[in-house]
Amino acid sequence: MKIACIGAGYVGGPTMAMVALKCPEIEVVVVDINEERIKAWNSEKLPIYEPGLFEVVKECRGRNLFFSTDTKKHVGEADIVFVSVNTPTKTHGIGAGRAADLTYWEGAARLIASVSTSSKIVVEKSTVPVKTAEAIGKVLKRNCQDPNVNFEILSNPEFLAEGTAMEDLKHPDRVLIGGADTESGQKAIRTLAEVYAHWIPRERILTANLWSAELAKLTANAFLAQRISSVNAISALCEATGADVSQVAHAIGTDSRIGPKFLNASVGFGGSCFQKDILNLCYVCESVGLKEVADYWLQVVSMNDYQKQRFVERVIGAMFNTVSGKKIAVYGFAFKKDTGDTRETPAIDVCKGLIRDGAKCCIFDPEVKAEQIFRDLSAPKFEWDRPNYSRSQSHMLENVQVQSDPIAAADGAHAICVLTEWDEFKHYDYAALYEKMVKPAFIFDGRNILDHAKLREIGFIVYALGKPLDPFLVKGY
Ligand code: UDX
Ligand code: UDX
């Protein structure tokens, strides 16, 4: 058997590496239009950082795992084709700001059709709106010259989280495969299930109809994001009333019906999926006339935007209502720890908000490169999900500096804003940093990871999200 995957990104790369590792008799080829990316996959420095990924790639590469730009050849030869290309939010036209742009998906489908001389299973891996499979099916059917070639479309959404992708792939809570209710659809489901059954217990391989599988992915992300927006809403109330959001979260999380995960209040959720999937879900709801349902879910995104804005206002308010000309150190730019990924990171909106008020942001992140930060802070919304984005121009910005050293970033600064929960931030010598900063020196902990009592002892004015306010802040606000 041969498997091809179109799209060597955060989803396609790790997923195919795991398939190759667990199924040594299957040839797995990951293809991409981006030559640089493929070159990197074939080198010692992979294009994405994911713990445990390099070891797996090293073991399989050249054995049964290959990375190539020769899309036609490998897709043509494959029995199963996974598609994991970008599905950006539309920026203009009907559904702008909500609907998914399926240009790249449609392009992939046309390509598959044009090179196919044998029947294939086409697997949706990218997140797509509900009923995409139907549209893709039509494109495939009408564009293939050979009448004997049959395409079966499956939806097999990915639930891996970045930073733990390899663990999630090795021991997933479940694998979901959706297919048509026809005999050939069910056969295709069984074929793909066989692949996963190499390492995943059968009872964890769930099957569903196509639309259910597509919708399950959007719903899973909407539910996860909703928990964060819910706890973030409560964090604002905590600050206003003197409750502590960590105590509230802990208390509710011990209820087994609620559970303890995904209840950390934060400066906002980021990442390539949550916002995009919710917007997608809303668009689908609106298109079938369910405005109330769309409005309900849209609130999850609005609350996330509110939380980022609230954080910015808190910083500016605390610093005597002006940050103009003040240096502010920003610790963390990635959307979460242990990744260099900045897609939809809350740091973008927070930095932009501070810069708009005249602050000079000095950003430090252990993984994210300076050019990426400049690109993100100057690019239009949703631009990051275009295939050429990482190769696009990166412009220096007047009020932004990127430092590779956290001490230099805080030197002469009025405040430190912690925007990513990197572990190393917990262990810095804050007493030494305090000495280098302008007084009063502020710390705004947007992730609640620091030892606030200790920081106050040193002399910092501390804002900890969702916690009783520092008396200095109450007065100043
Ligand atoms: C991707 C999509 O971006 C996301 O919308 C979806 O939900 C899951 O799949 P990810 O793997 O994280 O997620 O994206 P990315 O790292 O951007 O990888 C997509 C890859 O597809 C890129 O390397 C891009 O060059 C490639 N691509 C895109 C093609 O090979 N052909 C195309 O026509 C378009
Ligand atoms: C998410 C889903 O978890 C995954 O199943 C799906 O396939 C893709 O989208 P990912 O984006 O990698 O994965 O990150 P995740 O760990 O879910 O975190 C998303 C965002 O929420 C991050 O910005 C994170 O910092 C934030 N978050 C998470 C919180 O603010 N509080 C929490 O309690 C948990």
Automatic annotation (TrEMBL):
Keywords: NAD, Oxidoreductase. One of its GO terms (molecular function) is NAD binding. Residues 329-452 form the UDP-glucose/GDP-mannose dehydrogenase C-terminal domain. One of its GO terms (biological process) is UDP-glucuronate biosynthetic process. GO terms for cellular component: nucleus. Pathway: Nucleotide-sugar biosynthesis; UDP-alpha-D-glucuronate biosynthesis; UDP-alpha-D-glucuronate from UDP-alpha-D-glucose: step 1/1. This is UDP-glucose 6-dehydrogenase. Belongs to the UDP-glucose/GDP-mannose dehydrogenase family.
